[in-house]
Amino acid sequence: MALPPYASPLERLWHRVYLVICAAIFLFLIAPILIIIPLSFNAEPYFTFTDKMLSLDPAGFSLRWYKTLLTFGMINPDNPDTWAWWRDVWENAKWVQAAKNSIIIGVFATLLATVLGTVAALGLSRPEMPYRRLIMAVLISPMIVPIIIVATGLFFFYSMTGLAGSYLGIILAHATLGIPFVIITVTATLVGFDHSLTRAAASLGASPTTTFFKVQMPLIMPGVISGALFAFVTSFDEVVVVLFVAAYDQQTIPRQMWNGIREQISPAILAVATILVAISILLLTTIELLRRRNERLRGIQG
Amino acid sequence: MSQVPADPHAAVVATAGGVEDGPILTVDGQPLDEALARAGRRARWRAFLLVMPLLVFVIITFITPIGQMLHRAIYNPTFSQNMPRISAWLKAHPDEPPTEEAYALLIEDLKEARKNKTIGAVATRINYDVPGTRSLFTSTARKAKRLKPPYMEAMLKVNRKWGDPRIWTAMRQAAHAYTIDFLLNALDFTRDAKGDIVRVDPERQIYGKLFLRTLVLSLVITGLTLVLGFPIAHLLASLPLKYSNLLMIFVLLPFWTSLLVRTTSWIVLLQTNGVINDILVWLGLIREDQRLQMIFNQTGTVIAMTHILLPFMVLPLYSVMRTIDPSYVRAARSLGATSWTAFRRIYLPQTVPGIGAGALLVFILAVGYYITPALVGGSSGQLISNMIAFHMQKSLNWSLAAALASLLLGGVLILYWLYDKLVGIDNLKLG
User: Fold this and answer.
1) One domain for residues A110 and A218
2) Residue B62 to residue A176, Cβ atoms within 8 A
3) What residue ranges do the domains of chain B occupy?
4) Buried-exposed string B275-295: b where 16+ CB fall within 10 A, e elsewhere
């Protein structure tokens, strides 16, 4: 943002101050996320930088907390046999089990939310859709209603229908929570959709199914994928519903983190957090690439 | 027009020429307006059928559970089901003081409840209304088998509390499965010995205070996100896209990062032995023994939630600010306005839709927040959601939890309706 040439000295000063303020706010946003990365390599069980870390002494850093993630819950962490050791990790380590559960739940919830959400978004973006506003409000509401209310309602409902403590119950709940994101992202891509393309396809003899898969699908794909990623992240990060309706042994990563933070917070949590931050950077990059592809497809110059 | 024209264009030609009166027909001879109506109906159905699977899904997995919970806020059959005889008597004699017959029925019910192992639930139900009566029910039920008529006298001998009108009022209320008592409790009201609605003692008025605290903290958080979000949204909107997309990462990375990760980082930063206190000590601003308590209290809740909700303010503000034409401000300047006047009179009013959208969204999300206050709020930073969780998991007073949740849901839905009216759900954007 360039300052106009006619700016007075006072305005120039204010502009500097303004930029400093903005830098401080950006720091406020990003620092808490970045600070945990070096701390997760702490050799000591503290949450602060030791003198050794500050002087960049290699002895101050270690991977012990990452190793803890693998060994915690293992039957025989000192097994010299590498193959048996990894097998033990895969079958018994608590964090690995939690990761497996989180991924299974996340993948199925995402599939359900994406398929149902995309089809519904196609209907919702047709101009002739009746009660469009009301139905949209209902479908977006899982994002707005406080999570504790959803969890409370599901707790009663699932204990009545026998879904409590089952994977199916959690998957259905997480799919519901992810649906608003799919609807929002897919309808956003459909807003600029040129309907003469489908008519052109129909006039050339394509069936509605062919038109959908060959014409509409490729164009709305970026919206569908980013909606799916949102839905996956929502499920992957959801803890309250899991706390209320899951069985005791159905641990997920956020639930394990929640317990870790509440009971005894150890730097192993920071190691998990660092891994999760790395995943979110990856997701953010994917979304950004999709957005650019979408703009290119529509011929918008960035 | 009695017969179908052979030439497909005949209908159009005929009407255009004005030779014949009557409705315009389609190729296959139906009136045009009917055919159009039918096509419109079919298109509406097709659109609706696409949405229907999801709508059914959401109704089953979302609307029904919440509706059931709302029902539970006004429906509690624990007493009326497990103590059927006395419940029937109390319903039949709404204004009568308990008679010998009532005591006899009560003893019958107590015996049966003990046999069915439901006495604990019954005792807990009355204990909600008259605290400290749980053992009264369980111990009397244990002795009920040995009691001989006259029952009124015998009961009063076991425990004088059986003559307490408050207990009888509580049972009278509990005899009705449908009750508004839990909603009253959630608003700090209760019933006195006569059954009239009164406010609870000032030291027990916790829910009103908690609702107020939730409201105040949410407003503070909304205000803070606006103060912090406005400058950076403005900066992002006025930079060329090339740079603003890059800076946007600072907003989107927190948005994409796990909530628990962000909450953990704030614990790490703010604890008494945490990074910020270390820096302050190192800078000499505070002494080693003056370390600030910034977490596990209201300050912690406000700081962490402001950070977590800030992207929800920046994104709507940014999308509105991007559409503001900078030539308006330039025109104001060229007409002699100072930069402050131009900002205040020209720029700011144009950002109001963004401010409204962001503030409402942040406020709605803040009011129902649970995870962050539970982890960093200590006791003074708890919000209404945490109280609902407490009643669900610890005190097990599920009806009260449902009543509190209903009130919270009512508030949120009003705000949601307002958001839809003012901003429109269609304008909700993510990243």
Assistant:
1) yes
2) yes
3) 10-74, 78-179, 209-427
4) bbbbeebeeeeeeeeebeebb
**B69 close contact with A: CB closer than 8 A:** yes
CA gap B303, B3 in Å, rounded: 79
| Rounded average pLDDT over A73-95 | 86
B375/A144 CB distance under 8 A: no
Range of weakest confidence among A42-46, B219-223, B370-374, B397-401 = A42-46
Within 8 A of A123 by CB-CB distance, chain B residues are 46-51
Structural domain that includes position A24: 9-39
Whole-number Å distance between alpha carbons of B300 and B342 = 37
- Report whether pLDDT(A28) > 90: yes
In tens, the pLDDT along A101-144 reads 999 999 999 999 999 999 999 899 888 888 888 999 999 999 99
- CA–CA gap between residue B56 and residue B70 (Å, rounded): 20
Question: Residue B143's pLDDT is what?
Answer: 85
Q: What is the mean pLDDT of residues A26-46?
A: 90
User: Which residues from B are below 8 Å from A133, CB to CB?
Assistant: 420, 425
Single out the residue of B129, B385, B81, B343 nearest to residue B230, CA to CA.
Answer: B343
Q: Would the pTM count as exceeding 0.90?
A: no
* Domain at B209-427, CATH from 1.10.443.10, 1.10.287.1040, 1.10.3720.10, 1.10.760.10: 1.10.3720.10
List all residues 6 or more positions away from B82 whose beta carbon is below 8 Å from its beta carbon.
B109, B113, B116, B118, B119, B121, B122
Closest approach of A42 to chain B, Cα-based (Å): 13
- CA distances, B81 to each of A75, B96, B103, B109 (Å): 50, 22, 18, 10
At residue B337, what is the residue type?
A: A
User: Is the omega angle on the peptide bond into residue B150 within 30 degrees of 0, that is, cis?
Assistant: yes
Return the number of CB contacts < 8 Å for A and B.
269
Do B44 and A140 lie within an 8 Å CB cutoff? Answer: no
Count other Cβ atoms within 10 Å, centred on residue A164: 18
Q: How far is A223 from chain B (nearest CA, A)?
A: 11
Distance from CA of B220 to the nearest CA of A (A): 17
